[in-house]
Specification:
Length: 110
């Protein structure tokens, strides 16, 4: 998969009603994530791929875009339609997109 190009979208341009997959680690997720995002850490993605709907595009996000690019490349490789969210949750927060924290506190990007 080295050298694969992955479709990418800026965080501010991600439509509101898409399947958003967050592949960060649990502590990052708990600190702050998009309200409608689904959390499947990158390390468990291959085992949990059947939890992701096959009939819709998947928008993949991480902290800055590296892990999500890997995840999107793998999903595309196995026949899914996946788009990387460029800049990750850092760009998501900078674009003023909504975020929630698991502990009910002020969300932030860990």
């Amino acid at each position: 998969m080295v050298g694969m190009t992955v479709p990418e979208i800026e965080a501010g341009a991600v439509p509101d009603d898409v399947y958003l997959l967050d592949v960060r680690e649990p502590d990052e997720w708990q600190a702050g994530h998009a309200p409608a995002a689904v959390h499947i850490p990158l390390g468990t993605l291959q085992q949990r791929v059947d939890e992701i709907p096959a009939e819709v595009p998947v928008y993949v996000v991480c902290r800055i875009g590296g892990r999500s690019a890997q995840a999107a490349a793998w999903l595309n490789h196995v026949g899914r339609e996946a788009v990387n969210v460029g800049g990750g949750m850092l760009s998501w927060a900078a674009a003023g997109r909504p975020m929630v924290a698991e502990n009910g506190g002020q969300p932030y990007v860990a």
